[in-house]
Design a protein that fits this description.
Order of helices and strands: HHHHH
Largest sheet: none
Number of helices: 5
Helix content: over 70%
Structural class: mainly alpha
């Protein structure tokens, strides 16, 4: 279980840095910064997006949260949980 969390956390952190690199490359290419948010990744037409739209405070927070920061934070949390599991069962 800890290996699944470890590799998921690693993939999430790398994905967050990948989003930053993608935004940087598109900025250099077009000259305009395109903000990618968590709500943009979820989408407003999905079932989860419609559920979140019912709560304006959560919707506003997800529209302001950068996708790269959310991915990196989620990955770090998964890495911490994996390290706790590994030290507990070793």
């Amino acid at each position: 279980m800890e290996k699944i969390l470890f590799f998921s956390g690693l993939a999430s952190v790398l994905g967050g840095f990948g989003v930053i690199m993608y935004q940087g490359i598109t900025f250099l290419k077009s000259g305009a910064w395109t903000p990618l948010t968590v709500m943009g990744a979820i989408g407003t037409e999905s079932g989860l997006g419609q559920t979140l739209a019912a709560n304006p405070a959560v919707m506003d927070a997800l529209q302001k949260c950068p996708l790269s920061a959310a991915l990196i934070a989620l990955g770090v949390i998964m890495l911490l949980i994996a390290s706790k599991l590994r030290s507990r069962f070793d």
